[in-house]
């Protein structure tokens, strides 16, 4: 495959547009943000492997991610059906360098952008995306034909991307499992101490009140006896 087809990555859109187009695209992005959860349901994501250290950092909207990726044609409409098209490699990293891009910046095809949200640093996954989240996305401006950049797939084609999340900047920090366990254990200890202290002071107060009542009753009894003796002497 020629370098021209893969430079820049076909997963990246081109952001040269007029103010009116920018406003229209901004409105589209706002609407897309509101429906991100629904759009993710259109994706088929298979999470495969996580680094030995577990998940310590997750990608979120605005995070800058570095990924190793390969993109393939997953399916095409019947009128374009060709055994040479299905499974064809159409995208990959250039010169072995990770692709670095900010999520929700509008520069990455939405299917891949949405799939990366919530993924962990060091995680590997595959995603199958329908045409409206790939190269038929009306919210993206690819500028096919500029600088020899040709449309890599027929209209209506779905894609499959294999992705390795190399790095994440500005992601969501995920506490380590050991920390979570200690945190939960600490909460249990605090709850036990709180219940113990409550019980202790409750019964202590009951004991103080009981002694006070006994002392008051004893004093009243002594006073009554003294009054009886005084009446007898009188």
Strand and helix map with partners:
Blueprint (H helix, E strand, L loop, with lengths): L2 H4 L12 H16 L1 H5 L3 E6 L7 E2 L5 E12 L13 E4 L6 E4 L7 H7 L7 E6 L28 E12 L2 E2 L3 H57 L1
Antiparallel strand pairs: 1-6, 2-8, 3-4, 3-5, 3-7, 6-7
Overview of this structure, please?
It contains five helices and eight strands. With 234 residues, the chain is an alpha+beta fold. The longest helix is centred in the C-terminal third of the chain and has 57 residues, at 177-233.
What's the count of strands?
8
Structural class: alpha+beta
Mean pLDDT: 80
Rounded to the nearest angstrom, the radius of gyration is: 35 Å
Low-confidence residue ranges: 1-8
SSE ordering: HHHEEEEEHEEEH
User: For the report, how would you describe the main beta sheet?
Assistant: 6 strands, antiparallel
- Gross geometry: rod-shaped
Assembly state of the chains shown? single chain
Which architecture name of the largest domain does CATH use? Roll
Percentage of residues in helical conformation: 25-40%
CATH topology of the largest domain: Chitinase A, domain 3
Briefly summarize what is shown.
The protein has 234 residues and is α+β, with helices and mostly antiparallel strands. The protein has helices spanning 3-6, 19-34, 36-40, 110-116, 177-233, and strands at 44-49, 57-58, 64-75, 89-92, 99-102, 124-129, 158-169, 172-173.
Summarize this structure as a short list of keywords or feature phrases.
alpha+beta; 38% helix; 5 helices; 8 strands; six-stranded antiparallel beta sheet; isomerase; rod-shaped; Chitinase A, domain 3; 234 residues; rotamase
């Amino acid at each position: 495959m020629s370098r021209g087809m893969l430079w820049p990555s076909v997963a990246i859109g081109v952001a040269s547009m007029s103010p009116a187009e920018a406003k229209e695209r901004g409105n589209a992005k706002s609407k897309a943000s509101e429906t991100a959860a629904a759009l993710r349901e259109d994706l088929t994501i298979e999470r495969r492997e996580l680094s030995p250290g577990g998940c310590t950092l997750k990608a979120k909207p605005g995070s800058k991610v570095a990924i190793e990726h390969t993109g393939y044609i997953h399916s095409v409409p019947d009128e374009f059906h060709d055994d040479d098209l299905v499974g064809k490699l159409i995208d990959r990293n250039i010169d072995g360098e990770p692709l670095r891009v900010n999520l929700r910046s509008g520069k990455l095809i939405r299917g891949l952008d949405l799939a990366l949200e919530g993924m962990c640093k060091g995680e590997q996954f595959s995603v199958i995306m329908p045409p409206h989240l790939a190269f038929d996305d009306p919210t993206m401006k690819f500028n096919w034909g500029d600088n020899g950049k040709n449309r890599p797939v027929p209209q209506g084609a779905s894609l499959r991307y294999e992705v390795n999340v190399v790095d994440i900047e500005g992601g969501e920090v995920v506490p380590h499992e050991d920390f979570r366990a200690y945190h939960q254990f600490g909460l249990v200890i605090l709850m036990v101490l709180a219940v113990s202290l409550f019980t202790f002071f409750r019964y202590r107060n009951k004991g103080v009140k009981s002694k006070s009542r006994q002392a008051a009753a004893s004093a009243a009894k002594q006073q009554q006896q003294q009054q009886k003796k005084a009446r007898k002497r009188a």
